[in-house]
């Protein structure tokens, strides 16, 4: 587990005391616009001051009472007296032309507040302040001789003062050196390329002389960058001291051990027989773009005639502060010693097998580093493939995986676990732009890839997911991550979960949200989280029936899938009297389906396979997990219908083949390290970690929100003989509690309409349909007639009372 320190940092907005203001959206917006306008005002005032400032200067310096109000229009500045004063103060008395930086910062602040553009305010503030102070001095020094009849110093009083003071103390060369040093430090802070460029400028020859390059990068730096920017490629600086050392050397990188140092470059060339060893560049790249962590998960505006969120429009989605933040969240650090040692070992082992390496690039992910190797010309990738086991053995670290070649590239990949893995928190995943702005129907955020990108998939597209892995490798955490991502994005009217938990303990934490988000078979009085095998069979059969009903509805609506259907529904293009209602997605999650298959065999396997084959179009999706990935559990039938596979670490290669049709899962390192397959090649992902207290907090939040008062009802499953399962004979116990009232309503209106029952008693279509079926059995209404209301067979209440009394007796 990661350190449990509270790592919440005090942000710039908090320091500045504007964090509270930021919490009110409308206020933010108005205030942001105001600041934007103010920045434009300042720019105009500054420009006007440069053009016509000499006319205002004397008035400002010798201001008479009342003149500041400019009632006689004595000021020439386009922004009036206020503009003239502001421009005079900022430009003349402070920073000269560099004062333009002030409206730039204001504009950025305004844009952030109106949420048009998300910038890191602290970084911007620091950078712009340095730019302003530096250029004020530089302008005073370099532009003053050309300033002509400008009424202020180009760098303002600040620039002039600093310039004169520095010249007095250290002379002109000293001043130049200070300006140069500050510029270099600043550029290095801004971009890691600075060091590279400076080195290149200092020693251009070295670039040509070296052959093997090694670079370490963090994050999602794209390969195009590397390929396109041939110019920017790491220079190869020979270090004669190291080169002359015949021993495998220890390189002192000073403070360069951590990735927080923006650019660290070093070059090692060691004598390992005739082996040239790679040089070294550490490059920090952009991490996944975060969203504003105060924002609630987006609630899109609804402007369709029917609001699918009715009547729970006040429902508030879970907030990000319910999740925990971890140390170094989302930003893996680079231990240079570790990287160097791994790189040395790889080069040495490959050379022992006669494989010459040209370049090595190391991409440091949260738990794994990928060493990407290009071979010297003439060496075939197949050679590595044949040597795969030997190389893995020689490198002998736990969890090494060799990818030869990396698909789509001519390089070899060697994945090596990091000595200090990072926890990928759920918060860092959900607080990413990628998740918050996703248009996926059922977005599930799984974790982070090796390149530090948020890895998300759309369950609606997959459409069913098989999760496997040995015990204790992170399956339950993975399932919680899947459920959490769905809960953060979906309204209770849009999503229903069917949770099946043969282990009885895994899903019990979701009890608080059963009414909001769970679905259960109608006459089950027990907990909607299913733990009993017979209940599982009933529920799966019930889902098959629901699937058929939904297909009928899709057919009568003339659409092909749930998305088109719901779109028609919310746009009032479906006849509601024909039983149409908004269809929530249904996600069935089975925690240990191996147990179920072992106890109930085909009875479980067949409905699972049937749902998996057909249910995609009607919005029913399955996620099934097992810790026993054997062929007797993951049968051909199941495998064929579950294209999405999520493989955590397994004990043996054969298990990996069962899940992924290839080895790999047996080489994972556990604790959420997984391979995700949905198509050709698996992606290695570090699963997001969501702890039980976090899930509990989310559930408590949802429980407190307005929402459905009972779980969604699934239809009564059909038995082989065609009758309802579990319905039994028609006695009072089996009748719906609303039966008598509903029957009286039907007789009073003489309308055998299911949707009327639905509306009048505010119940779901399934329950209303079941009431109609019960009335049909007792001869109160006739058989269903497609979309039309049923015939009412009893004309008065007395006859109905007789029917009910008959059942009671
Ligand atoms: N993504 C993750 N990041 C960090 N640690 C993790 C992650 N996933 C799991 N772990 C660690 O592994 C432990 C076991 O995880 P989990 O309970 O999910 O395993 P499991 O595969 O469901 O086991 P079982 O099958 O026995 O229930 C967790 O308590 C946690 O300490």
Structure described in brief:
By secondary structure, this protein is of the alpha/beta class. The protein has a nine-stranded mixed sheet with strand order 9-8-17-16-15-10-14-13-11. Strands 2-3-1-4-5-7-6 form a seven-stranded mixed sheet, sandwiched between helices. The chain has a two-stranded parallel sheet with strand order 12-18. Mean pLDDT is 78; it is low at 1-9, 221-276, 278-286 and 725-729.
How would the blueprint of this fold be written?
Elements: H1 12-15, H2 19-22, H3 25-61, H4 80-95, H5 101-113, H6 121-142, H7 156-190, H8 193-202, H9 206-209, E1 213-218, H10 223-228, H11 240-244, E2 263-266, E3 280-284, H12 336-352, E4 357-364, E5 368-375, H13 381-395, E6 401-403, E7 412-417, H14 426-430, H15 433-436, E8 443-449, E9 454-458, E10 465-468, H16 475-489, E11 495-500, H17 514-517, E12 519-521, H18 533-557, H19 562-570, E13 585-590, H20 593-600, H21 602-614, E14 620-626, H22 636-641, E15 644-647, H23 653-660, E16 673-677, E17 683-687, H24 692-703, E18 712-714, H25 739-749, H26 754-761, H27 765-777, H28 797-808
Parallel strand pairs: 1-3, 1-4, 10-14, 10-15, 11-13, 12-18, 13-14
Antiparallel strand pairs: 2-3, 4-5, 5-7, 6-7, 8-9, 8-17, 15-16, 16-17
Helix pairs in contact: 3-4, 3-5, 4-7, 5-6, 6-7, 18-21, 26-27
This protein binds adenosine-5'-triphosphate.
């Amino acid at each position: 587990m990661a350190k449990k320190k509270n790592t919440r940092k005090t942000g710039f907005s908090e320091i500045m005391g504007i964090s509270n203001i930021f919490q009110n959206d409308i206020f933010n917006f108005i205030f942001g616009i105001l600041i934007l306008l103010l920045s434009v005002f300042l720019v105009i005032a500054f420009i006007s001051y440069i053009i016509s400032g000499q006319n205002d200067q004397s008035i400002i310096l010798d201001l008479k009472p009342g003149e500041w109000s400019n009632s006689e229009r004595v000021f020439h500045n386009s922004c009036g007296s206020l503009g003239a004063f502001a421009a005079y103060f900022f430009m003349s008395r402070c920073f000269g032309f560099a004062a333009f930086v002030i409206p730039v910062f204001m504009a950025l602040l305004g844009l952030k507040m109106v949420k048009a553009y998300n910038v890191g305010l602290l970084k911007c503030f620091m950078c712009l302040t340095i730019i302003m102070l530096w250029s004020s001095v530089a302008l005073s020094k370099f532009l003053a001789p050309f300033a002509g009849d400008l009424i202020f110093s180009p760098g303002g009083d600040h620039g002039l003062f600093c310039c004169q003071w520095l010249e007095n103390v250290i002379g002109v060369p000293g001043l130049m050196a200070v300006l140069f040093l500050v510029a270099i430090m600043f550029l290095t802070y801004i971009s890691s390329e600075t060091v590279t460029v400076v080195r290149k400028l200092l020693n251009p020859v070295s670039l040509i002389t070296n052959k093997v390059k090694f670079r370490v990068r963090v994050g999602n730096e794209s390969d195009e960058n590397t390929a396109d920017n041939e110019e920017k490629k790491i220079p190869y600086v020979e270090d004669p001291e190291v080169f002359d050392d015949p021993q495998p050397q220890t390189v002192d990188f000073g403070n360069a051990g951590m990735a927080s140092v923006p650019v660290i470059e070093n070059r090692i060339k060691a004598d390992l027989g005739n082996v040239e060893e790679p040089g070294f560049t550490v490059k920090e790249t952009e991490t996944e773009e975060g969203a504003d962590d105060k924002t609630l998960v987006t609630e899109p505006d609804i402007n369709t005639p029917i609001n699918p969120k009715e009547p729970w429009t006040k429902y508030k989605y879970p907030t990000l502060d319910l999740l925990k933040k971890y140390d170094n969240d989302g930003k893996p650090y680079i231990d240079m010693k570790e990287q160097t040692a791994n790189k040395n070992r790889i080069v040495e082992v490959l050379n022992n097998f006669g494989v010459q390496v040209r370049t090595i690039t190391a991409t440091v992910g949260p738990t794994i580093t990928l060493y990407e190797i290009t071979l010297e010309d003439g060496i075939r990738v197949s050679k590595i493939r044949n040597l795969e086991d030997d190389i893995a053995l020689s490198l002998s670290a736990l969890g090494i995986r060799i990818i030869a070649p990396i698909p789509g590239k001519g390089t070899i990949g060697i994945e090596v676990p990091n000595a200090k893995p990072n926890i990928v928190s759920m918060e860092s995943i959900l607080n990413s732009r990628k998740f918050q702005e996703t248009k996926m129907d059922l977005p599930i955020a799984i974790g982070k890839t090796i390149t530090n990108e948020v890895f998300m998939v759309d369950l609606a597209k997959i459409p069913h997911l098989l999760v496997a892995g040995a015990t204790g490798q992170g399956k339950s955490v993975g399932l919680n991550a899947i459920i959490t991502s769905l809960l953060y994005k979906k309204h209770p009217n849009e999503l229903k979960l069917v949770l099946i938990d043969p282990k009885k303990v895994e899903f019990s934490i979701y009890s608080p949200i059963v009414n909001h988000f769970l679905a259960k078979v109608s006459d089950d009085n027990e907990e909607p989280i299913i733990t009993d095998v017979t209940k599982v069979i009933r529920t799966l059969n019930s889902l098959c029936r629901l699937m058929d009903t939904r297909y009928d509805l899709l057919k009568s609506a003339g659409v092909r899938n749930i998305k088109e259907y719901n779109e028609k529904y919310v746009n009032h293009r479906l006849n509601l009297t024909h039983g149409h209602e908004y269809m929530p997605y249904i996600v069935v999650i089975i925690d240990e389906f191996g147990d179920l298959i072992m106890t109930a065999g085909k009875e479980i396997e067949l409905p699972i396979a049937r749902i998996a084959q057909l249910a995609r179009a009607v919005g029913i999706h399955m996620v099934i997990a097992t810790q026993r990935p054997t062929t007797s559990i993951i049968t051909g039938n199941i495998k064929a219908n579950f294209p999405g596979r999520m493989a955590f670490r397994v004990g043996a290669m054969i298990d990996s083949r069962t899940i992924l049709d290839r080895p790999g899962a047996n080489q994972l390192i556990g604790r959420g390290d997984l391979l995700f397959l949905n198509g050709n090649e698996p992606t290695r992902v570090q699963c997001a970690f969501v702890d039980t207290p976090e899930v509990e907090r989310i559930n408590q939040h949802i429980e407190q929100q307005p929402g459905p008062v009972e779980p969604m009802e699934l239809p009564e499953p059909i038995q082989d003989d065609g009758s309802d399962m579990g319905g039994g004979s028609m006695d009072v116990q089996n009748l719906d509690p609303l039966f008598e009232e509903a029957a009286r309503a039907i007789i009073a209106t003489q309308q055998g309409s299911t949707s009327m029952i639905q509306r009048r008693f505010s119940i779901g279509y399934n329950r209303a349909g079941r009431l109609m079926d019960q009335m049909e059995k007792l001869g109160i209404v006739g058989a269903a007639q497609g979309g039309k209301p049923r015939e009412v067979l009893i004309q008065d209440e007395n006859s109905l009372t007789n029917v009910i009394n008959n059942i009671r007796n």
